[in-house]
Design goal:
- The protein has about 325 residues and is an alpha+beta fold.
- The chain is built from seven helices and 17 strands.
């Protein structure tokens, strides 16, 4: 598909089936279920938008962010609307980018991949942070990035522009449910990440979430991997155990959850991997068996109820 450049007149139109019945509705290439013009207003405070909004899709995203496009595609990239704003007071130019992902998990995931947890929190979207010349935030299925030239300043004014864009994108939504499955005690702030593919180097470990925990050395990591069924999860656990054939001290464990195995890997340290119904819960790098078992058991307690409404038991299915 060809890249789309949306001028002032067209960008003011409501684009996509999600706003059917609106005047000027158009479909450019494929459905864009939000108003590009409303999400990128022609004016917000001192910021005036350029006459054109460029649109990119999965087929040509590399033209805009060559080298990073593949990562965005992995997180479910759908389309990008980008334009420039100029301050009518200082002539400072801001590049605004609105990435629409397949779902909120993808928006959360690419945001957490790109943002530094050391950046200053800002009250934009579900979560946002500001560095010296960039503001990033996410809401619903959107990841938004505003970039000033180095040393551009104008942070408060930039946040105001971000608020105007966020308003145009609608209800922000909430954090993915999976974030709450990781216990807060000892968790490194903002360390929960979404891994859409190849978690822990396993092709079958998709749509996984991980969190980092404080501890000796580099601390530990907890990972949750969902599967379509208990049988699929059990088969994946067996493959993962085979993958770790060179790990030392391998032993079967009956609990937590539905059991699994433990082993010590030269790179990842102590590994405890168990099945909890249709999910795998894995601890890597914990200080000892007790610490690994504790974090895995706490995660299993937080997993959603089994079909039929019965809560999952810590020690079994």
């Amino acid at each position: 598909m060809r890249r789309l450049t949306v001028g002032l007149v067209v960008s003011a139109f409501f684009l996509g089936a999600g706003l059917s019945g609106e005047p000027g509705q158009r479909t450019l290439g494929r459905t864009i279920p939000y108003s590009v013009g409303r999400a990128l207003p022609d004016r917000a405070g001192e910021w005036a938008r350029a006459a054109q909004i460029q649109m990119f899709n999965p087929g040509d995203l590399w033209e805009y962010i060559d080298g990073a496009a593949e990562q965005f595609l992995t997180y479910g990239f759908q389309d990008l609307a980008t334009t420039k704003y100029t301050s009518d007071q200082t002539r400072t130019v801001v590049v605004a980018e609105v990435y629409r992902m397949e779902d909120a998990r993808g928006a959360f995931g690419i945001y957490r991949q790109e943002v530094s947890p050391k950046a200053r929190p800002v009250a934009l979207g579900v979560e946002g942070r500001a560095s010296s010349n960039t503001i990033r935030f996410w809401l619903a299925e959107f990841y938004v990035k505003l970039t000033l030239p180095p040393g551009g300043g104008r942070q408060r004014e930039l946040e105001a522009l971000g608020a105007a864009i966020a308003k145009g994108l609608g209800a922000p939504g909430t954090m993915p449910d999976e974030v709450r499955w990781f216990p807060a005690a000892g968790q490194i702030p903002d360390s929960v990440k979404y891994i859409p593919a190849d978690a822990l180097g396993q092709a079958s470990f998709t749509h996984a979430f991980e969190a980092k925990y404080e501890g000796p050395g580099d601390g530990s990591t907890a990972v949750i991997v969902p599967f379509e069924s208990d049988a699929a999860a059990a088969a994946a656990l067996t493959r993962y155990e085979t993958f770790l054939a060179r790990a030392k001290g391998k032993a079967k464990v009956a609990a937590p959850g539905d059991g699994g195995f433990s082993a010590t890997d030269s790179f990842q340290g102590l590994i405890l991997a168990v099945r909890a119904g249709s999910r795998l819960v894995i601890s890597l790098g914990a200080a000892d068996d007790r610490a690994a078992g504790s974090i895995v058991a706490e995660i299993i307690k937080r997993l959603p109820a089994k079909p039929g409404g019965q809560p999952r038991k810590e020690g079994g299915s």
